[in-house]
Design brief:
By secondary structure, the protein is of the alpha+beta class. Helices cover about 20% and strands about 35% of the residues. The protein has one domain: Nucleoside Triphosphate Pyrophosphohydrolase (Alpha-Beta Complex), CATH 3.90.79.10. The strands form two sheets. Strands 1, 2, 3, 4, 5 and 8 form a six-stranded mixed β-sheet that branches. The N and C termini lie far apart (about 35 Å). The model has no long low-confidence stretch (mean pLDDT about 95).
Amino acid sequence: MKVSKKRPSAGLLMYRRQPNRLLEVLLAHPGGPLFARKDEGAWSVPKGEIEAGENPHACALREFEEETGLRPMATRFLELGSIVQRSGKHVQAWGFEGDWPGGPPKCNTFELEWPPHSGRFEEFPEIDRVEFFTLERARIKINPAQVAFLDRLEALLDS
């Protein structure tokens, strides 16, 4: 069995109900040129790597704020468990009810040599946009391994 050397990540899945009780979830699209033309299967729960000794839920709260600029004000978080992505990355997530105030996310940036082997480095946002999707659309947009988070959230809210 191959063991991943990647540090595990933790994230938060914000959800809201429309007046017709339709459930929507907030997903983040990764920034930078590598994802610029990728859409279906590229979106994600806002997440980040768990630091050594850090509580995973505390990491999820920190990363959500760092990646979106929005501090989660919820008092109730639904544990959605963990998944393993195709890359071998382990991700834990929690769901919470909230709403997006509008506008682009205010997130951290990263530096990347672009174009590759050019010697020029550019700065890109970790997330270039966030958007609410119905569960049906989210299942198409989200990283395939993370669909399990949507299923678990739906099951918890329907119970």
